[in-house]
Design goal:
With 187 residues, the protein is an alpha/beta fold. The protein is 21% helix and 25% strand. The protein is built from five helices and seven strands; from the N terminus they run αβαβαββααβββ.
C-alpha cells in the first residue's frame, strides 16, 4: 500500500506558492528521466534545495542519479532509504550533492534537524525525496519536482514531471530550454 506522502494537493500547494513558476514536462523512459536530471543540474548552484515528490517507483532516484552525473559528484547515486541521507562530494569545483530520503521520517523539520541539512545547504545542492511538509522551512527558494506516473498493473514508463520553482531564485525557470521534454509544446 502506498504511503500517504503524495497528497494530490502537493502539486496545487506548490504551484500556488507566492512567486511560484511551473513547467510541465513529459518523460518517456528511465533514460530520459536521468537525462532530465542532468539538464536540471545545469541550473542548480550551491544552496539550492530540491524537493522530489512522486509515488514509489516514479523515478525520483533516477532523476537524482542524473543530477549527480550533471553535478559531477563522486559515488553511485542510489536510494538513501535505509541510511536516510548520503553525501556525494564533488569531483571538481562544483557543489556536493546531499541526497535525503525522508520517507520514514514523520516528524517534520524537528526530526530532520539531526541530519544538519541547514548546515549542508549553503555549500551543497540538497535533494530531498518525500520532503513535502518536512523541509520547506529550510529555504524560502526551492525547486519542487512532482513526478506523476500511471498507477496499478502497468508497464508504462511515461511520466509527467512538473517543475515548480518557488521564490525569486527560480523566477527564470520557465525561460530555460526544456526541449525535448515540454508537455504539449508549452511551458
Amino acid at each position: 500500500m502506498e504511503a500517504p506522502h503524495n497528497s494530490p494537493a502537493a502539486a496545487e500547494t506548490a504551484a500556488n506558492a507566492p512567486t511560484a513558476v511551473s513547467v510541465r514536462l513529459t518523460v518517456e523512459s528511465p533514460e530520459q528521466m536521468q537525462a532530465l536530471g542532468r539538464r536540471i543540474s545545469g541550473v542548480l548552484r550551491p544552496g539550492d534545495l530540491v524537493m522530489l515528490t512522486g509515488e514509489l517507483g516514479a523515478g525520483k532516484t533516477t532523476l537524482t542519479r542524473g543530477l549527480g552525473e550533471g553535478l559531477g559528484v563522486r559515488g553511485a547515486v542510489t536510494s538513501p532509504t535505509f541510511v536516510i541521507a548520503r553525501v556525494h562530494p564533488p569531483l571538481g569545483d562544483g557543489p556536493a550533492l546531499v541526497h535525503v530520503d525522508a520517507y520514514r521520517l514523520g516528524g517534520g523539520l524537528d526530526e530532520m534537524e539531526d541530519l544538519d541539512l541547514d548546515v549542508s545547504l549553503p555549500e551543497s545542492v540538497v535533494v530531498v525525496e518525500w520532503g513535502d511538509g518536512k523541509v520547506e522551512e529550510l529555504a524560502d527558494d526551492r525547486l519542487q519536482v512532482l513526478i506523476d506516473r500511471a498507477v496499478g498493473d502497468t508497464d508504462d514508463e511515461r511520466r509527467v514531471v512538473t517543475l515548480v520553482g518557488v521564490g525569486a531564485r527560480w523566477a527564470g525557470l520557465a525561460h530555460e530550454s526544456w526541449q525535448p521534454w515540454l508537455a504539449d509544446g508549452a511551458a
